[in-house]
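Entry 14. Two folds queued back to back today. First construct below, sequence then structure tokens.
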Amino acid sequence: MEFKKKMNQRFAIAVGYILLGLALVIADILKGFDNYFFFSFGFALVIMGIARLFRYRKITKNEQTLRKQELAESDERIRMIAERARSWCFSLSLIGAGMVVIVLNVMGKHDEALPFAWYVCGMVVLYWICWNIIRKKY
């Protein structure tokens, strides 16, 4: 029953994605399509939210499917793969952003390099904060 509660929370988050996406789309329409960033980002959030709603509804509708999903999410091998994938993604994004900072600075484009440098610094600080919180928790 605990997993079904978790799925219901995910369902609520998917509805939140849809509402946020609709708010962005409506804001861009009211602005007269000033730039299509908000419209496209909002539309993507709506589509993602709807896809998640259908997926979670399919999982929670059938007790056997719900149990199968619960087993899949509690499997240690799958958890390890997900953890390593997140770790690689984090590391590669920091290395890539760091390389962009170096290349842009060598090219003399210091203003363009600054957002990437702030991203790297912010992610390292966020990692440090999360590491300390998790270290104290466990």
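Second construct, same run, same settings:
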Amino acid sequence: MNGRLARLVLLPTLVVAGCSPPVALQNALQKQAEEVQIVKAHYARSVVQLLDTIEKLQLELLGRVEQEVKAQKYFEKELAKEPTRKTDPNLLIVAVQTEKMLDEYFDKKREEIRSRVATAKVEYLKLGQSIENIER
């Protein structure tokens, strides 16, 4: 706040008086601008890391759900056993079709998660660029 106050009060006063700001003030303002850029860079990296972590956790959770659903659907009693000559081939076909259907469903969900996170990253970067354009 003190830096802003100095800029708001001191710079207009010096400009109106026809004087140039002291070198120390110019250096302080330049240093402050550099520090703001460093903070922005750290913040941007932190947001991207946060989005990456969210993606990783969502994918891990989806993987666990997939394992549980598969365990319930087709690794039940008879289907969990190794097929023998007496095993009904129709049961095996149903199990394979069910597994394929579940794999496709969860692959689609994984892609949706990746797409949402990628979109969020792009939107964040656009927002950061818009803020930089406004500051100029």
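Quick look at the second one. DSSP finds four helices and no strands in the chain. The chain has a mean pLDDT of 77.
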